[in-house]
C-alpha cells in the first residue's frame, strides 16, 4: 500500500511538471507570433511614409525658384528674354498658341500623348509640366520650353514652330541643368552649341561650331510651321522650324534634320559610327529667298532634297504651301498644306504653275 502511494505521487508530480512545460511553450509561441506581426505592421507603415514623402517632393517652390534663376542667366547668355508661366494666365506665343491651355491637343514627335500642367509633377499624364518658358523672337515665331516630369524623370520639351508639335530638346545645357535642379545639385550656365532650340537666331558665316559647321542655315519665315500632304499611302507631316526640318511618314517613321553651313570638305575615309553620329546633320543652303536645299552630311551619291514656299488660291482665298522635291532639279514631288483637311480636299489637284516631277 505504501509503494502504491509513492508511485501515485510520482505520477502526479510528473503530470504537473509536463503541464507546466506545455503552458510555457504555448506562451513563448504566442509572444513570438505577436512580435512578427508588430514588425510587419511597422515595416508597412514605414514603406507608406517613404512613398508619400517621395511623391510629395518631385517638384516644389525651391526647385521652381532655382529654375527661374537659371533661365534668366541662360536667356541673357543667349540674348533671349523668356517669359515664365505664372500658374494662372496662359502664355500666348507669337506663333499663336496658348499654354498650358493648348497642351490638350499637343503631340510629341507627331504622336498623341497626354501633356498637362501639374505643379507638383505627380500627375498621371505622360508629361507633367511643372514650368513653361516662352521667347517670342519675331512677330510670328517663338521658342517655348516645357519642363516636365515623365514617370518622375525630368525631361525638357521644346516647340518652335507654328503648330502644336513638341520634341525633347537636344540642348545639352538645358537637359543637364534641369536634371541638376531636380536632384538638388548646382547649375552651370553655358552657351549651347548644337541645337536651334537654344541658340540665338544667327547664321553668320564666321560662326565656327566645330567639325566643319559654319553656323546654322535659316529657313524662310513663311516656311515654318506644321504642314500636311495626303497621298495614296496616307497622310505625311512636315514640321519646319528656324534651323530644323522633321518629316513624319504615313507609318509614323520620323526623319529629323538640323541645317548647317559646311565649311570643310568631306573626309575621304568615314567610319560607320561617325556616319551614325551625324545622322541628323545636313549640309544645307538657301535657294533664293523662298527655298532651302539639303544633303546628308556625309552623302556622296544621289540627289538632295529641296523645299520651297508657294501660294495658291483655294476656295477664293490665298493659301500658303510648301513644295517638296528630291533630286538634281527643282521639280515637285509633294505639295504640303497648312491643315489636314486641306491636304485631303486637294490631294488630287494639280496646279498649273507648279513643275511636278510626275
Number of helices: 5
The ordered string of helix (H) and strand (E) elements is: HHEEEEEEEEEEHEEEEEHEEEEEH
Global outline: globular
Radius of gyration: 33 Å
Could you characterize what this model shows?
The chain has 358 residues and is an alpha+beta fold. Helices cover 27% and strands 31% of the residues. It has helices spanning 2-55, 61-78, 172-183, 272-277, 340-345, and strands at 83-84, 91-92, 98-99, 107-108, 111-112, 115-117, 127-136, 142-150, 153-159, 165-168, 213-216, 225-231, 234-240, 244-248, 254-262, 281-287, 291-296, 305-314, 317-326, 334-336. Strands 11, 12, 13, 14, 15, 16, 17, 18, 19 and 20 form a ten-stranded mixed β-sheet that branches. Strands 1, 4, 5, 6, 7, 8, 9 and 10 form an eight-stranded mixed β-sheet that branches. A two-stranded antiparallel sheet has the order 2-3. The radius of gyration is 33 Å and the shape is globular.
Summarize the structure.
Helices cover 27% and strands 31% of the residues. The chain is an alpha+beta fold. Helix 2 packs antiparallel against helix 3.
Helix-strand layout with pairing:
Blueprint: H1 2-55, H2 61-78, E1 83-84, E2 91-92, E3 98-99, E4 107-108, E5 111-112, E6 115-117, E7 127-136, E8 142-150, E9 153-159, E10 165-168, H3 172-183, E11 213-216, E12 225-231, E13 234-240, E14 244-248, E15 254-262, H4 272-277, E16 281-287, E17 291-296, E18 305-314, E19 317-326, E20 334-336, H5 340-345
Parallel strand pairs: 4-10, 6-7, 15-16
Antiparallel strand pairs: 1-7, 2-3, 4-5, 7-8, 8-9, 9-10, 11-15, 12-13, 13-14, 14-15, 16-17, 17-18, 18-19, 19-20
Helix pairs in contact: 2-3
